[in-house]
Structure formats: structure tokens, C-alpha cells
Amino acid sequence: MGIITSTSTRTGTSIHITPMSISRLTNMSILTSISSLTNINILTSIIIHIRPERTSKGPIHTRKQLRRDFVERGFTVGIGGPVGTGKTALMLALCRTFRDKYSIAAVTNDIFTQEDGEFLVRNGALPAERIRAVETGGCPHAAIREDISINLGPLEDLTAKFHADILLCESGGDNLAANFSRELADYIIYIIDVAGGDKIPRKGGPGITQADLLVINKTDLAEAVGADLGVMRRDALKMRDDGPFVFAQVKHNVGVKEVADHVLAAWAAATHGTVKQ
């Protein structure tokens, strides 16, 4: 049976709602429960944490594909992860890997700048007209999950203009709780790095547990930061129910081909094997 629990924090009262409790409770009863836990004057301080069910764990072939029109919007790969883990570097590497064989376009998300898009243009990832930079404002996670229209527009426009086969969409840097909506991304790559320590995979979060592919980047720094790659491997497999992950050094092109192969396999599965060889 689902439950609602509360925890006091510096920023207010944290309300934890399990998936089962959401399905059994009406909006009014949720609001009533919240109101009973805190004074109405501090309702603006409440943080609601919804613990998602792991709906997309494991290899992509075990997850039911959403049926949609890939002519309207090309096969969309969402690349997410915390700040500084190598999302833009992976975008660049995948553009370079795919661009000679497939029609590729890219959308980047930044909070208040267009820096990542400018980086891709400056490094010749793709022609500038195939790259769009989106400024999300202070809630980058909303642009890839709750209100995806800010990304859908550019992605559909790029598909119409260039008949894009594959669209790469980079999220703004966010925490481990952020992940793409399945209405936006057909395939989700979540990238972390060893600089945060070998504890990161076991911390979980939707990005780590639900992404189609987990990339553990900057493995060349493991010794310097005291991270045990064996521990990261064990915990990644445990948290992802043996779902796929790749050790990588994206900047040095290590692991990039393996990531690209996963993307192409997913594209083939989604389009029933119609991928150009």
C-alpha cells in the first residue's frame, strides 16, 4: 500500500509520495495530506519528491517502443547528466561519428547562455545551421521532462529542413534526479564521470536507473581521485538490473564507438531495421 511521509529540511517540508500512493490518491487528498503537515504560510517552501518506478531499465529491446512518426521528428537521442561530466564532448564525438553517413542535427540546452551550441559550432561538429541552442532558464530539467515544447519545436524544425535521421538533444547540466521524458527522447544516454567518486552509480536516481545506456566517463582519472572502477561496474549493474553501460574517455575517443553502436542498434529497433548501412 502506498504511503506519504514527510521530512523536515532547511528549505521546508519534503513530502515523499510512492508511485502506488499517487495512483490511489486524488489531487484533493494529496493536497489535504500536505496541508496537514505544514502551515499554509510556508506551502511555498514545500518540495514534493515523487519516486518514479523504473520503467525503462535494462537493454532497450526489453522496453516497449513508443509508436510515433519518425518523418515528423527524427530518432531522438537524449544525452543527460550532471554539469561537467562530458555531455557536450559526447555530443561532439557522436556528431563526428555519424555525420558522414547519416543526416544529423543537434539541440543543446543551457540555462542562460548558448555556450554548448557555440562549442559544437566552433569545433565543427556539424554545419552551424544544423545546431540549435536553447536557453532553458533556471529549471533545465523542466525543458526535457515537464514542458518539452521548448525542445520539440527545434527538433521538428531541424527534421523538416534536413530530413534528419538522428537528432542529438543535450540537456542542461542537472542533478541525478533529472531525466528525459519518453515523449521527447527515443533513446536516453546518461553520462557520469569518475571525478565524483565511485559512489555515484549506487546513489541511483532516474538518470542512472532508467537511461537506456549509462556512460561512465573520464576513467583515466580514476587513480587520481581514488575511484575503484570495479566498484562502479558492480554498482552500475546492480542499480540498472544488468542494463548496459560503457566505460569511456570521450575526450580521447575511448568508448565512443561502443556508444555509437548502441545508438544505431536502438534506432534499428525503433524503425524495424530500416537503418541505412
UniProtKB/TrEMBL annotation:
Biological process, per Gene Ontology: urea catabolic process; urea metabolic process
Keywords: Chaperone, GTP-binding, Nickel insertion, Nucleotide-binding
Coiled coil: none
Start and end residues of each CobW/HypB/UreG nucleotide-binding domain: 76-246
Top-level taxonomic group: Eukaryota
One Pfam family here: cobW
GO molecular function terms attached to this record: GTP binding; GTPase activity; nickel cation binding; urease activator activity
InterPro entries named among the record's database cross-references: CobW/HypB/UreG_nucleotide-bd, P-loop_NTPase, UreG
Known function: Required for the maturation and activation of urease via the functional incorporation of the urease nickel metallocenter.
Summary of subunit composition and partner proteins: URED, UREF and UREG may form a complex that acts as a GTP-hydrolysis-dependent molecular chaperone, activating the urease apoprotein.
Stated family: Belongs to the SIMIBI class G3E GTPase family. UreG subfamily.
Protein name, UniProt field: Urease accessory protein G
